Predict the structure.
Amino acid sequence: MKKYQTGIIISIAILALLLFINSQIYSNVMPLSVVIPLLTVHVFFFYALQEKQRYKTYAAFVVVFAVALFVSLPNYTQQQALELATAEYPMDVSEMSNVSVTGSSEWNPLSLNWTYVFRGDLDGEVISVMVVADSGKVFKIQE
């Protein structure tokens, strides 16, 4: 187990950073269903490839991980989504949350399964607005 210690520490540090970023910036809408298994595989790759001094292969794995991470990032942060929502519906936001959505019947581990939802007062009426984190489309939700 000690031989995997460095890989475990690196993977846990990256996971902690990603969870923090997902929580603070993206309000937990970023899909991590590809990134987490890659971090698990990283533990074994780090030990095996470093021991054999296969740095090019390890670099290729890091590039694959970076691409998977980049593709997993939502196009809009919660703050950007809030700006989009209030630009289209100039409301005083009182509540921010996420709603689970399912698109097509096909499973795609890189697609977002959550959207941002803002609830607030617009001219004396309480409205809810949903912003899709990938496209930035804004929808008023009927209650």
Remarks:
- The mean pLDDT is 88.
- Residues 2-72 form one domain.
- The longest strand covers residues 92-100.
- The radius of gyration is 19 Å.
